[in-house]
């Protein structure tokens, strides 16, 4: 069939949905293909950072987002061996750069539904759920669209630009032979949730470390979202020990939740994330561009993946809307997206690699609790230094703002 637009986006995550909305507001015919029937998947990137909150304001969606159930986090702190905590990132120090000096925690499906609703108001925006990309169309070495499998069967969509926004295991990226450079990661993450006391007003990420175990407690609206960090490649061992042993481990690390670990009835409720940290050397080929996790998988450290993906989408919309209206971007215009986004992406990945080496690896290997003591002393002596990681994680080295064609009044 003939495509309803000249841009097709594989993947209805934050990157794909933001890019689709912005291009539609530029008058570009765009189709987003999402293989699932809804956005309801647990333990996705649920942290919405100041840069993304500012973007939502610029798009006229800030008020609607603020009405969604969410929790605000104002600092990132690590426990120290003496029982105190060290504030590594104080987001309240960002007040001079943003109206939102905090991280908003909200289910990703709420954010995606908000973007889908905004997209539906644009006549050139189409979202097709239950539609999976199964192949790429090529002519003379150029990608000219996709093959898909949807509710109505198999079909084809032709497009002047195909965007791979289909995640860290991107099918479209693999089809064109783009392979990311991988950096070693010493840990994996196991996500689960426990109930939260209604009187609990905690407003900080709370990492807890003990005897080779690391648990991150993310206070959410009505529940604790918990991340258990353990040595990479040990998922089989962890599950083989059974849910009772896992409950004992969690109660040992976070004793204030010991009375709730019984809520875990099966290891099926514990979701394993194979943590990857990688980046493509080249984000495009003729007719196709990779953005978000398809271009650079991020560690969950700092929760920045969703926000960097959104920043990629904004940069791509600004740089490519004009070429798309003229008929299709050149390879040089596609390369400009990577050139724009490489520095902030590499900077955050460098910070993550440093935290892996200095904090995560020593903890999961049982060699140390918390950050190195010299770093702890420095942060306590000069609290203003907590601005640096707060800015890098919350706003970034090159924050992207909505282009004029996409802005709307609140």
List the helices and strands and how they pair.
Layout: E1 7-10, H1 14-25, E2 30-33, E3 47-48, H2 50-58, H3 62-66, E4 71-73, E5 75-79, E6 85-90, E7 103-105, H4 108-120, E8 125-128, E9 132-139, E10 142-150, E11 153-158, E12 161-164, H5 171-175, E13 181-182, E14 187-195, E15 204-210, E16 213-220, E17 223-231, H6 235-241, H7 243-253, E18 271-273, E19 278-279, E20 284-285, E21 288-290, H8 305-326, H9 331-364, H10 373-381, H11 387-394
Parallel strand pairs: 1-2, 1-12, 2-8, 5-15, 12-21
Antiparallel strand pairs: 3-7, 4-7, 5-6, 9-10, 10-11, 13-19, 14-17, 14-18, 15-16, 16-17, 20-21
Rg over alpha carbons = 21 Å
Strand percent estimate? 25-35%
Q: Reading side by side through the largest sheet, how are the strands ordered?
A: 6-5-15-16-17-14-18
Number of helices: 11
Largest pleated sheet: 7 strands, mixed
Task: Tell me the distance between the termini.
Answer: 38 Å
Number of extended strands: 21
Mean pLDDT, all residues: 90
Helix content: 25-40%
pLDDT < 50 stretches: 1-5
Shape: globular
Helical/strand content category: alpha+beta
């Amino acid at each position: 069939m003939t495509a309803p637009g000249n841009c097709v986006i594989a993947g209805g995550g934050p990157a794909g949905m933001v890019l689709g909305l912005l291009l539609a507001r530029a008058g570009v015919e765009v189709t987003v293909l999402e293989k699932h029937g809804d956005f309801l998947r647990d333990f996705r990137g649920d942290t919405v950072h100041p840069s993304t909150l500012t973007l939502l304001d610029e798009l006229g969606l800030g008020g609607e987002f603020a009405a969604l159930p969410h929790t605000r986090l104002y600092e990132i702190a690590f426990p120290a061996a003496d029982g105190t905590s060290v504030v590594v990132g104080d987001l309240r120090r960002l007040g001079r750069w943003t109206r939102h000096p905090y991280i908003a925690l909200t289910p990703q499906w709420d954010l995606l539904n908000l973007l889908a609703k905004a997209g539906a108001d644009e006549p050139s925006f189409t979202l097709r759920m239950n539609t999976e990309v199964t192949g790429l169309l090529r002519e003379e070495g150029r990608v000219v669209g996709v093959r898909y499998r949807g509710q109505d069967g198999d079909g084809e969509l032709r497009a002047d630009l195909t965007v791979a926004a289909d995640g860290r295991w991107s099918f479209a990226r693999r089809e064109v032979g783009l392979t990311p450079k991988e950096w070693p990661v010493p840990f994996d993450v196991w996500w689960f949730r426990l109930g939260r006391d209604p009187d609990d007003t905690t407003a900080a990420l709370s990492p807890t470390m003990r005897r080779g175990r690391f648990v991150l407690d993310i206070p959410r609206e009505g529940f604790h979202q918990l991340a258990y960090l353990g040595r990479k490649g040990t998922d089989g061992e962890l599950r083989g020990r059974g849910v009772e042993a896992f409950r004992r481990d969690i109660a040992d690390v976070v004793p204030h939740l010991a009375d709730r670990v019984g809520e875990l009835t099966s290891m099926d409720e514990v979701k394993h994330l194979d943590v990857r940290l990688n980046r493509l050397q080249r984000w495009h080929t003729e007719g196709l561009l990779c953005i978000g996790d398809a271009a650079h998988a991020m560690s969950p450290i700092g929760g920045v993946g969703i926000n960097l993906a959104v920043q990629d989408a904004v940069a791509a919309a600004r740089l490519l809307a004009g070429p798309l209206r003229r008929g299709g971007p050149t390879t040089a215009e596609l390369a400009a997206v990577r050139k724009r986004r490489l520095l902030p992406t590499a900077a955050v990945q460098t910070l993550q690699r440093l935290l892996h080496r200095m904090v995560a690896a020593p903890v999961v290997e049982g060699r140390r609790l918390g950050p190195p003591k010299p770093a702890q002393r420095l942060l306590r002596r000069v609290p203003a230094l907590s601005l640096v990681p707060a800015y890098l994680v919350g706003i970034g080295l090159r924050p992207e703002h909505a282009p004029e064609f996409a802005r709307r009044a609140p």
